[in-house]
Amino acid sequence: MERPAWAPRSIDISVPSVSRIYDYYLGGSHNFEVDRVAARKAMEFMPGLPKIMQANRAFLRRAARFAVDEGITQFLDIGSGIPTFGSVHEVVQSASPGARVVYVDNDPVAVAHSKAVLEGNEDADVVAADLRKPQEILTSPEVGRLIDLNRPVALLLVAILHFVEEEDDPFGAVAELREALAPGSLLVVTHASYEGIPLPQERVEGAVDVYKDIRNPLIMRTRDNIARFFEGYDMVEPGLVAMPNWRPETAPEDEDPFAYSGFAGVGRSA
Amino acid sequence: MAEPDGPEDRLRRFTTIWSRAVYPASATSLTRPEFELKLVPLARRLSEALRARTFDAAEGQAVGAALIDAHCTEPEALSRSLDCVDAYLVLYCGEDGPQEDLRNRSARLQHAMAAGFAHALRERTLAEQEAIAQAALEAQGVVAEALHSSEARFRAVFEGAAIGIGIADLDGNVLQVNNALLRMFGGTEQLVRGRKVVEWTHPDDAPQVWRLYEELVRGEREHYHVEKAFYRPDGTVLWTNLTVSLLRDADGCPQYQLALMEDTTERRLLNLRLRYEATHDALTGLPNRTLFFERLDKALSAREGMRFGLCYLDLDGFKTINDSLGHAAGDRLLVEVADRLQSCATAPGEMVARIGGDEFVALTTGPDTEREVDALADRIMNALVTPVRIDGRELTVRGSIGIVEGPTGERGPAEVLRSADITMYRAKSAGGNRYELADAEADARAITRHGLTTQLPAALDRNEFFIEYQPLVHLGDGSVHGAEALVRWLHPQHGVLTPDRFIPLAEHTGLIVPLGRWVLEQSVRQAREWQERHGGKAAAGPLRINVNLSPCQLTHPGLVSDTVDILERAGLEPASLCLEVTESALIGADDDLLKPLRRLSEMGVDIALDDFGTGYSNLANLRRLPVSILKLDRSFTQGMQQFPADPVDLKIVEGIVSLAHSLDLAVTVEGVETGAQAEQLRILGCDTAQGWYYARPGPPDRLHDLALVDATG
Fold it and tell me: According to the UniProt entry, where is the signal peptide (chain A) (predicted)?
């Protein structure tokens, strides 16, 4: 039987959370020892993991600014996690005061934390929902209050799609979201992949196993597969590329080799 | 733009070196140039503190803390910053100050930066730990609240559900029940709670009920579904559809049993009633044909070595009672007979059923029915001996019984019943008030109503019918006056059948209409042929033809047009046709029914009232009927066969003839078998006669010959 929406799963902070591990990689302390144990374990295989997270944040920042430059003032960030710093509302509201941001996460602790951070911010809110149930997101009161689906929206799916297994139909879920968006909307995606990581695949698999062990498996997809998330959308230049290569603002020699792991891209709804 | 190699330019160069060193160790999402811009004010503070008139190491602390704000939380970032300050601050920002003093200040600034960094990092770490702990607590509160409201909803479902819900532990102790369950049991919670599930036994429990229960509490079964009865505290019975499920804990260990029950008591009663009504005769309360067939089927499929005996009873003359005393009296008679029959079959394995109007069956089963079935038939015959008293009358009831007895497993119910039916008819045709035993040969010979009914339609298509003609003789001069057409069925197996065997069946199925039309056609054509063959030479004028009309044909809308059509096509005068209608068909006839007869009569067709005197002859009614001939039933002439004739019969016939003549009706008598009879009837004034004395019914040529003899002799 499917669990009804009003009966959330219980919270067990003795189980590592990907949101808090992510925070740890970014030097934050919004994490518990269980999270740090898992994070350190993964780093034994891939010491550059923090650099990948950092590259994600840098790409997110550039893409958000790009969206603001395109005139977009509504942002839907699914899988927002625990934004230690440089989160979307900070980036876009400083560039475009009054821009609206709705965060979505299925981790109740991440949601509670975001609520605390966003207190007093009239133009941003957070929804406890799951990417696998797009209608619950689209019909949430927060989205209803802050986002006008008849106008373009920037939909941010940064470092989340690789946590959705095939059996949960990530392509179907993203398609459902794409269809709900008005023409001119942007889809911002980063996704993990074996491609681009400066390590042999066996070592990466060690890190992937850590995520499997914490029952939050990391699904590595090929570039071609990742491109399918943009079906029906036009890719914004330079297309689906390694994160540092997407509209870089500085010379790439500053970049850590791990930053080139996986892919990033922005698509525009016709 | 800063002046090349001026102080500002040198400050920026220091900042650039610093940012290049620290940026890789930071977690910032800023680009390096952006990051460098953030470091510029920090570098300026260090630079100014280095050269200030009064040295303040606290500036170093502020810069150390600012690194944390710029998300340089890694110890490596501090280490690199200190390296950088140590190596380049004095060089780029010391200007021309005293080197030793500057180096001293730089060192103290570094100590202060380290302290500021550590302090800020500790504060931030604690704050973030606090924030995430709060968030976790908050989230747990949300979950707890949701769980609480979820539980409240489940409780509302539990309490408000229309079905009864109960939870018991695996020892069978009832822990919790909802209101619906209490209502079903009609008790208070004390009566149900604290009881043991295993106490709820009931004599009607299916054998598997408690086996399933044991399997479930042992954890070998996840759920079961049964129909189960319970005693309510007041002793009444509660019937339920019961579903019991095993509830396991998170580790999968059996923990509780959950019972869901639906009260089916009412539905069950209704079903029982419907079943009773569907299987019992409303009038007598006896099992009906359906139930009897079920029982018979069961009896016939019983294990080897068993036998069955069946008595098929049909009351003799019941129709007469119904017709003369009315249906209400007939019904009361049936009820009385049913009661008596019931008392005849009280042993286990015996049953009585009513399977049709006045048809009853009694069934006996067991190893010894050969003897028992005769005893049963005797009991039935005896039970009918005492007259039945209805409305002050003593009615004598007689019945004919067909008995079938034999081993089970050889014949099906339909075959057994057919055999019993045939045997019963054999008893009836042997005079009734008796029983006969079935025998296979007699069965094979028997002509069953059912068989004939199904063969009738094809018989018409296959031309199995033919017509015989019985002469009608003028009593005055003995001349042949015409003939009555009598239809016969040349049945492929049973030979020639007379109308009494199949006309009632044809009436019943409606086949009488096409069959009657065929008879009329044939007869009219035959009459026309006779007339052509000897013109008007017959002594009594042109030969006439009498054709019987059944009640069913009377009401058929095509009667007049069909008759006219047939006459016209054959070229026969309407006056040469006489249609015979039985008296009973016209009893109570209203004008609508008489209208077609009137039309035919106006055209010149004679209408004869057949079998006159057998029913309740309503003499007053005769006037309004469009009838020109009375045909006296043979029962009147039987008394005249001997000599001297029965004087009462003579008086009656004389009276009827006189009455008929005064109404301008001719009188025809049937069943004339002796010359004395013929003479007597002539004296009494009858006009026409028919009977074996003159000729039996025969082929058309016989009549032709008779008429010729008549004409010449």
Answer: none
Q: Is residue B526 located within the same domain as residue B659?
A: yes
Residue B19 sits at the chain A interface (C-beta within 8 Å)? no
**DSSP 8-state class, residue B196:** B
pTM score, whole prediction = 0.52
Same domain, B465 and B611: yes
Tens of pLDDT, residue by residue over B566-581, are 999 999 999 999 999 9
User: Is it the case that residue A5 has pLDDT exceeding 80?
Assistant: no
Number of domains comprising chain B: 4
B501 touches chain A (CB under 8 A): no
Answer whether A27's CB lies under 8 Å from A53's CB: no
Residue B137 lies in a domain: no
- At position B622, the amino acid (one-letter code) is L
Q: Are B442 and B463 members of one domain? A: no
Residues 6+ away with beta carbon under 8 Å from B415: none
Question: Quick check: A250 and B143 CB within 8 A?
Answer: no
Whether B33 contacts chain A with CB within 8 A: yes
Q: Mark whether B309 and B221 lie in a shared domain.
A: no
Instruction: Give me the percent of chain B exceeding a pLDDT of 90.
Output: 43
Closest to A113 (Cβ–Cβ): which among B124, B135, B140? Answer: B135
**One domain for residues B514 and B440:** no
Nearest CB to A13; choose among B136, B138, B146: B136
Radius of gyration for chain A, computed over Cα atoms and rounded to the nearest angstrom: 17
Structure tokens at A146: 């802050």
Residues on chain B touching A249 (C-beta within 8 angstroms): 31, 33
CATH number, domain of B214, equals 3.30.450.20
User: pLDDT (tens digit, 9 = 90+) per residue, A50-62?
Assistant: 999 999 999 999 9
The range of the structural domain enclosing residue B170 comes to 164-269
Cβ contact, residue pair B139, A111, below 8 Å: yes
Separation in Å, CA of B74 to nearest CA in chain A: 7
pLDDT tens for A78-108 read: 999 987 788 899 999 999 999 999 999 999 8
Task: Please indicate whether, in this complex, the C-beta atoms of A27 and B74 are within 8 angstroms of each other.
Answer: yes
Indicate whether B158 belongs to any domain.
Answer: no
| Domain A18-231+246-269 is found in CATH 3.40.50.150 | yes
Instruction: Kindly determine whether residue A6 and residue B139, on different chains, have CB atoms separated by under 8 Å.
Output: no
Of all residues in chain A, the one with the smallest CA distance to B151 is A7
DSSP-based three-state secondary structure for B223: strand
pLDDT at A267 over 60: yes
**Across the beta sheet with B237-248, what order do the strands follow?**
B174-177, B164-169, B254-263, B237-248, B223-231
User: Contact at 8 Å (CB) between B358 and B284?
Assistant: no
**The domain spanning residue B392 has which CATH number?**
3.30.70.270
Three-state secondary structure readout of B388-438? EEECCEEECCEEEEEEEEEECCCCCHHHHHHHHHHHHHHHHHCCCCEEEEC
The answer on B297 and B238 residing in a single domain is no
Instruction: Identify whether residues B667 and B523 lie together within a single domain.
Output: yes
As a dihedral over the C-alpha atoms of residue B125, residue B127, residue B133, residue B136, rounded to 10 degrees, the angle is: -110
Q: What is the pLDDT of residue B530?
A: 85
- What residues in B contact A108, CB-CB < 8 Å? 139-140, 142-143
**Residues A220-265: tens digit of each pLDDT:** 999 999 999 999 999 999 999 999 999 998 877 778 889 999 999 9
Per-residue pLDDT tens for B187-225? 777 777 778 888 888 888 888 999 999 999 999 999 999
Q: Is the ipTM of this complex over 0.85?
A: yes
Candidates A6, A26, A109; nearest CB to B139: A109
Distance from CA of B227 to the nearest CA of A (A): 26
Q: Which residue among A9, A108, A113 places its CB closest to the CB of B132?
A: A113
More confident residue, B387 or B445: B387
Q: In terms of Cα–Cα distance, which of A261, B527, B613 is closest to B622?
A: B613
